[in-house]
Amino acid sequence: MIPMHVIATIRSDFPTKFGIPRQSGLVEELKATVVFEPEYRNPDALRGLEDFSHLWLIWQFSQAVRETWSPTVRPPRLGGNTRMGVFATRSPFRPNPIGLSCVKLEEIKKDPVLGPVLVVSGADLMDGTPILDLKPYLPYADAHPEATGGFTGNVGGTTLRVECPPELLEAVPQDKRQALLGVLSRDPRPSYQHDPSRVYGMAFAGLEVGFTVDGDTLYVCRVEPKKAD
After folding, report:
1. What is the pLDDT along the chain (229 residues), one digit of tens a residue?
2. Which DSSP string do the residues of 61-126 spell out, in sequence order?
3. Could you write out the DSSP letters of every residue in 163-181?
4. Does the domain spanning 8-62+97-142 belong to CATH 3.40.50.2300?
5. What is the pTM of this model?
6. Which strands, in side-by-side order, build the sheet including 207-214?
């Protein structure tokens, strides 16, 4: 066994997995904070980090830890019926449930209680996700514009048109509105569900958001405070 330590956790607007963008960076308006564990709150550990614009977060799929694994998985992007090799996907169900996300570093805050806190944007992590490490993003080595995307094709650019009545949008805190609209435009549904009459519910920033999807348009039909579990 290789010893690993949780160095931090992330605080985001997603209390559950449903609705989280499928990859990091797709919704730039999403803000989250990285809060270090007490033993890693030494400011010296972050010296020089402020000069980098983006970071890699290495984290654990804490809600997908299993004792066994399968060599093939069913990617939602292929309708949930076609099997691909687990190492050809970013499925959370892996021999080691580790995720990798590239986020933008917006700010390093000095909290009197929590110590240095990182404010990041574009994160695709559920609230409370444990972070195992972070590393600076290096444009000269990490960017490959000529790279191919395999079976994912050009899905990264696919978006829905979002229609939200003004009175419902007003129920969302102003600083969260663009992030919510961005998340919805990325179609939170499983890719194999296409029932236009089905009402989906998504928890976001303390709210319960209900919506339907017909064709290439998403209609918001409900925004209300999330009920306590």
Report:
1. 888 999 999 999 999 999 999 899 999 999 999 999 999 999 999 999 999 999 999 999 977 677 888 899 887 777 677 898 999 988 888 899 999 999 999 999 999 999 999 999 999 999 999 999 999 999 999 999 999 888 776 555 578 999 999 999 999 999 999 999 999 999 998 877 788 999 999 999 999 999 999 999 999 999 999 887 6
2. -TT---S---SEE--GGGTTTS-EEGGGS--S-SSS-EEEEEEEEEEEEEETTTEEEEEEES----
3. E--HHHHTTS-GGGHHHHH
4. no
5. 0.90
6. 161-163, 217-225, 207-214, 200-204
| CATH fold label, 157-225 | YaeB-like fold (3.30.2310)
Helix (H, G, I), strand (E, B) or coil at 136: strand
Q: Which of 183, 53, 182, 170 is nearest to 118 (CA)?
A: 53
Please measure the distance between the N-terminal and C-terminal CA atoms of the chain and give it in whole angstroms.
37
- Domain extents for the chain? 8-62+97-142, 157-225
CA-CA-CA-CA torsion for 139, 142, 145, 147, nearest 10 degrees?
180
